[in-house]
Each structure stands twice: as C-alpha cells, then as structure tokens.
Write a structure and sequence with these properties.
155 residues, 32% helix, Aminopeptidase, 5 strands, 4 helices
C-alpha cells in the first residue's frame, strides 16, 4: 500500500464507522439505537478491546478482542469476536495486521491461545484464517432464543 495505514483503539466517536463495518461484516443493517447502546457498553468493558485500521483518515477495518478466563483451559483465552475489512482495503494485509495485533495483545495478557468463529458460508474467511495459522478444531452450535416482548399497552 502506498498510503499510510495506521492503527488505533476505537472510541465512542467512531460509532458511525464501526456501525458501517459491522453492517459490512454481516451484510445486513441493524437497529442503530440498539447498536449504540451495545457499543457504548462494550467500550466500558475492560476485557473487550476494539482496534481500528485507518487508511488516509478513513476507518477501513476493525477487530474485536475479548479476553476471558476459561475454566476448561484454566487459562486466559483471547476470543476474536469481530474482524472486518472494507472491500476497498482488502488484499493489502490489513486483516493480517489486525489479527497480529489481537494475537500480541492476547500473548501480553498471558493467554494460552486466540480463538474465533466464522460462518460456515464464509469460505474466503476460512482460507484467510488457515493462511494465518488457525486450525479448524471445534464445531460451534447455535440456537435462537425467543426474546420476550412487552405487551402492547396502546392496543
């Protein structure tokens, strides 16, 4: 890349850029108010870190790292919860550099390993993670739970 790529922690002022990145990651739009509440709460969590990639003043990538003590490891684990790079910045090492940052943060915190989940449909992401040294070691199962709704008192 001929232009300068910089990295910095995300702040509340980055809410618009982070929202756009998450929408890109999931290829969907989310309730903005709910996103803002969650992002604000997550920024206050001392074991949750967001690092941004900034290219020519524009946020083009982000990684989320959650440090957790896992009883079944009897050690710290760095869970990469989100990794996304905007399409125009892909193929230039941005994702690899964000991943390296998360791995180093986990190492400095004494973590045994880093782990992540990715959609079974995201084959390009699978190849990327394998190139970065990640191994497919687990299956992840999910189940949607019904969210209780408040009764409509205006009916």
């Amino acid at each position: 890349m001929s232009v300068s790529l910089e990295f910095r922690p995300a702040t509340l002022a980055d809410s618009d850029a982070v929202y756009a990145l998450i929408c890109e990651l999931k290829q969907a739009e989310f309730n903005r108010q709910a996103f803002n509440v969650g992002f604000t709460a997550n920024l206050a969590e001392r074991n949750l870190h967001y690092q941004l990639a900034v290219l020519s003043g524009e946020v083009v990538g982000m990684i989320g790292l959650h440090m957790q003590f896992h009883l079944h490891h009897v050690n710290w684990v760095g869970e990469i919860q989100e990794l996304v790079v905007m399409p125009q910045a892909r193929g230039h090492g941005v994702g690899s550099k964000l991943l390296a940052w998360a791995e180093e943060q986990a190492r400095l915190a004494g973590a045994e390993l880093t782990e992540l989940s990715t959609s079974a449909k995201r084959l390009d992401a699978h190849r990327f993670y394998q190139r970065e040294g990640y191994q497919h070691t687990h299956f992840r199962f999910t189940k949607a739970v019904e969210i209780p709704h408040e009764p409509d008192t205006n009916a």
